Amino acid sequence: MTRVQILETLKASYSSFTDFIDSLNEEQFLYSKVNSWSAGQPLEWIVYEK
Predict the structure, then answer these.
(1) Separation in Å, CA 49 to CA 1, 18, 26, 40, 44
(2) Which of 1, 16, 17, 38 is 20 to 30 A distant from 9 in Cα terms?
(3) CA 14, 20, 22, 28 torsion: positive or negative?
(4) Quick one: pLDDT at residue 41?
């Protein structure tokens, strides 16, 4: 993949992921199985981890 293809793929994937997260209600957003992340935690990690 070229740099441009990678960036375009990342933008499309991020958009799909954020659309999915946005479609969840609060209960779905916070739900987590034992030893598993909730739906929102990966997004939080992307936004706040440095």
Answers:
(1) 26, 17, 23, 14, 8
(2) 38
(3) negative
(4) 87
Rounded Cα distance between 50 and 45, Å, is 9
Quick check: 49 pLDDT over 70? no
Q: What letter does residue 48 receive in the DSSP assignment?
A: H
Q: What residue ranges in 1-50 does DSSP mark as E strands?
A: none
CA count, 13 A, side-chain hemisphere, 40: 10
Could you tell me the pTM of the whole model?
0.62
